[in-house]
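3.2 Worked example (two chains)
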Amino acid sequence: MEQTSKKVIVSLKDIFVRFDGEVILNHISLDIREKEFVTILGPSGCGKTTTLRIIGGFVEPESGDVIFDGERINGLPPHKRNVNTVFQKYSLFPHLNVFDNVAFGLKLKKLPKDEIKRKVSKMLAVVDLKGYEKRPVQKLSGGQQQRVAIARALVCDPDIILLDEPLGALDLKLRKDMQIELKDIQKSTQKTFIYVTHDQEEALTMSDRVVVMNNGVIEQIGTPEDIYNEPVNAFVADFIGEANILNGTMIDDCRIRILGTELECVDKGFGRNTPVDVVIRPEDIMITSPEEGQLVGVVEKLTFKGVHYEMSIRCGKCEILVHSTSSAAIGSTVGMSVVPFNIQIMNKLLPFYDNIIETEVSSSDESANTFSFELEGVTVEVPNHYFPEGTRLRVTLPPEALSLAGDGDGDLQDVFIESVIYKGEHNEIILESDERKWLMLSDTDEQVATYVPLNFDFEKAEFEVLDPEPAAREG
C-alpha cells in the first residue's frame, strides 16, 4: 500500500529505439516512484543500459515520451535534468583528491566555498569516507573509489541517481558488501535509485522493485519476492535463481501432468490439456523414500554447498536439481515430493506450432526429386520431396528439425538467439529471424543475444498442400 501511494517521478511511455536498423527497445513503458530502489535486470544486449541512458538524456528515443515529474522532457540535455549517473568505470579525476572530486559539480555551480565544504563533508560522512578528504583517488580501494563516485553524484542533490553496473569491477566479497552499503545509502538519502545489472543476486538483495528485460521488452515488473516466487514465464524463472523448468500439460484447473505423473497445483485458467511450462525451485523439492515420492529418480551427482546438499537426480530422461539439508548416496533411488503451492505454471514462451511456414513452390525438379521456396528473401531447397511449381504448401517443422549450421552456411543467416532455457533433458532455444520466431531443441548451450545460421531438416517436416491441385508426390 505504501509503495503504490508514492508519487511517480519518472515515466517512460511507449519508448522505441533503433540503432543501425536493429530494435533495441521495443515500445516499453515504465513508471518509477520517488524514494524507491528500482533495478533493471537482464542479460547482455537486452536494452537495460539504453533504458538508463534514455532517462539520463544520453539517448533520444525514436518515438515515445519521457515524463519527469509530470513534464515531457524529450530533447532536454543531460545537464538540465535533475539526474546524476554512476558508471561501472567511476570516471574520477585522477589529478584531484577525494574532496575535489566530490566538490567538482558544486564548483561548476559556483557555490560559496563554505557551502561547498559543508555539503562535501556531509556527503563523505554518508558514504563512510570522513577523513579521506585529502587522499589521492589513485590510492583508494575499488570500493572506496565507488563511494567517491556515489558521493559526487549525490552531493548536487539530484532527484534520481542512475547506476550502470557500478559493482562490476569489484571482487566478489567487496561486491556483496557494497550491495548492502548501496541500499543503506539509498535509504538514508531518500533518493530514487535506478540500478542496472545482469546479476540477479544484486537485484534481489537491493531492490524495492525489479524490472526484468529481455530482447528489448520488459518481461516482468515486481518485488524481488514476486519475481522469484511468481515468474511470468520460463525466461524470468531461468534468469532469476536456479529452477527446474519442465514441459507439462495442464489437465484442468489445479491439475498438472509432468514426467508422466499427475500432480496437484494451485493455478487455474490455463484451459484443459494445454501445453505449459512448469517451474519448481530446487529448494522446494523434498527427498522421500521411493514409496512415498510423487516422482522417483536415481541420484547422479551430489555436492555439499555448506548450508545444503545439491543433488542431480535422473527421473527418466530428465535431470532434476534438488537442494536439501539431507543427502542421498550417488546411485541410490529416492522419491521426490513437492507441495501444490510450490508448483508454478506458466504459458509457454513460444508454442511448438509456431514453426509453420505457409509458402508457394517457386521451382521444382522432378528428376532430382527436389523443390524450392522463398523464405524471407532467401531461396530454400528441399531435398527428397517433390511438389510442382506453384503448389501452395504448409510446412510444419518440429523443434527437433531445427539446428545451428556449424559451418556458417545455413538455410537462414543471422538469426538472433533470443533465449536459451534448460528443460531437464535439453535446451529450448527461441530464435528470431527477420519476420518470425522459431523454437529449436539442442543438447548444447548457446550464447544468448548472438547471431547464428539456422538449418532445417526437412526429413522431419510435415507437408500439407493448401489447394487441391496440382497433385503432389513425396519420395
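3.2.1 Second chain
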Amino acid sequence: MNREFERYIAEKLSLYQDCIVKDAMIYCMDGGKRFRPRIIFAIAKGFGLAEEQAYPLGLALEMIQSYSLIHDDLPAMDNDDFRRGKPSCHKAFGEDIAILTGDALLTESFNVIADSGLEPRIIAKCISALSHYAGMQGMVYGQMLDVQAEKGDLSDLEIIQDHKTGGLFKISCLLPMYLADKNDEEYFINLGRRIGIIFQHQDDLFDLLRSKDDFGKSTSDAQNGKFTALSLYNIDELQMVLDDKFAELSEYLKKAPFDTSYLLELLQELKER
C-alpha cells in the first residue's frame, strides 16, 4: 500500500461538506488495490517524474473507478452485494445514496484535475481523456454492451473488454504521458488496451475459481449467465490465452518510449495476483 497516496486521498475527501454522501464516498474509496493509479505512477516515474506529481491524476481515476463499481453493483445492473471485502454501497447506504455517491465521485474527478495546479493545456488533455474513455467512447459504452450481451464470438468479447475494462486502463496510460508533456497517444492507448484485456480475462477466471472472501467481491458472473471469456474458453484454454497475452505485452513494452522497469514490476504483480 502507498501510504502517502492513501493520506492524499483521505485529505482530499475530508474537504467535502459533511453529509451522508461524503460518508459513502469515503466508505467506497476505502480499500481496493489502486491498480490503475499505480500504473499512472509507474509510467510517470518511467518518464523521470516524482510519483507525487501524479497523485491528482491517480485520485481522479480512482474516483471514476469507484463510481463505476458502485453503479455496477446496483440491482438494476449486476446486483452484487459485496465489494472490496464489505457490503456494496447500496447495501450499506441504500440505492438512492449509492446512485448519488457514484454521481458525486464521477463529477468530482474532473474537479480534482481542474484544481491540480498543472498547466492548463495538460489539465485540458487529462480531462478530455477522462471524459472520452470513461464515457460513450469507452467504459459506459462497454458497460452497455456487457449488459445487453448474452452470447457472441471472440470479436464481440474483445469489443466489450476493450471499452468496458480497457477504457480506464487507457486513461491510466495516457494521463502520465500528458503529465510528462509527451505526445505518443497511439502507443499508450494500445498499451492500455493490452493491459485491460489481460485484467478482464483474469477477473473472468477469478469469478469462477475464487470465493467471495478471496476475491473481495461477489463472484456472480457465472451464476448470472453473463458473456465472459469463459463463455468461449475452458479454464485451461483461458490460462494459455493469458500466458500468450502477457508474452505479447512484454514484447510491446520493449518499444516503450519510457523506462519500463517500474511498470514491469507492477505487471509481474498482476501476473501473480
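3.3 Remarks
The radius of gyration is 18 Å.
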